Structures are given as structure tokens and as C-alpha cells.
Amino acid sequence: MALNHRKGPMLIIAASGMCESGRVLHHLKHSIENPANTVAIMGFQAEHTLGRRIRDKQPFVRIYDREYSLRANVEVLEGLSAHADVNDLRWWYEHMAQTTGIGQAFLVHGEPDSLQGLSQVLKDFCDEDPIIPERGKVYEV
Fold first, then answer.
1. Is there a domain that residue 92 lies in?
2. I need a labelling partner for 59 at 20 to 30 A (CA). Which of 31, 71, 107, 110 fits?
3. Which range among 74-78, 97-101, 113-117 shows the weakest confidence by mean pLDDT?
4. How many domains are there within the chain?
5. Contact 125, 101 (CB under 8 A)
6. Are 7 and 34 members of one domain?
7. What is the pLDDT of residues 20-44, one digit of tens each?
């Protein structure tokens, strides 16, 4: 809370995936309407998230059930991610398949197109094709 009343330049680093929860919401609420501020968006921002709306520079964003004008500068820093890329995942899965005899993969985190692409890559190492679960469907493991 003290940061909200502090004067002068400062850098606030607030981690929260897609800007959807945590302290980042308070920091954004108190800074997003000030054109002297800059919000740096790093990493992937999924559709329909606050982080994506800020990244896309929508004129208004909703934070805690209130609309705010996006007047702060927005800088998007590409190439940074907390997630492994497809090559890292392929290496990990290949290693697990060789050392544990893992038979099948369930791909549960990511955008639909990315999951389809990863599924194609992992097919070479699976006894059975990877599964992208459907909501509400029951799978036997």
C-alpha cells in the first residue's frame, strides 16, 4: 500500500500470470491511468485476460469491477517466458519415455493450436497418441 502514495520514479515488479490476480492488480489500479507511467508486459498473455487487454492497448480495462482508462505507456517485451518451449518439452518427454516407460501424455495447459502442435511432436515418443482432454469428459488412466 505504501507504494501507492510514493512520489518519484520507481520500478515495481509484480509477477502474476496474465495479470489476473495478486498484488499486480493493485499496482495497475493505481498506475494505469497515468500517462507518465509505463507498464511492461512480458511473456505470453492468453486471450480474454487483463494482461492481453493491456498488451493489445485496449482503451479501457476492467480491474476489480471498475473500468480504467489505459493511459499508461505499454511496452511489450517479447521472448521471455516462464514456460518451456516445444523443444524443451520434447526433450523432457523423450527422456521420460526412455527412462520410465511412460506410455501416454495428457496435454492440459496451453492454447488449443499450441496443444495440437505439441501433440504432433510428442507422437513419436508415445505408445499412444497424446490426449488433449475435453472438458467434462472422464478418462481412464
1. yes
2. 110
3. 97-101
4. 2
5. no
6. yes
7. 998 899 999 999 999 999 999 887 8
pLDDT digits (tens, 9 = 90+) for 39-88: 998 878 889 999 999 999 999 999 999 999 999 999 988 766 667 888 88
Do 26 and 55 share a domain, yes or no?
yes
Residue 123 contacts residue 116 (beta carbons within 8 Å): no
Same structural domain for residues 73 and 46?
yes
User: Nearest Cα to 36, choosing from 63, 10, 3, 5?
Assistant: 10
3-state secondary structure of 5: helix
For helices 86-100 and 112-122, angle between their N-to-C axes, nearest 10 degrees? 40
Cell 505499454 appears where? 74
Q: Is residue 140 part of a domain?
A: no
Same domain, 51 and 97: no
- Which residues make Cβ contacts (< 8 Å) with residue 108, sequence separation at least 6? 132, 133
Residue ranges making up the domain that contains 69: 2-77
- Extract the C-alpha cell encoding 111: 492454447
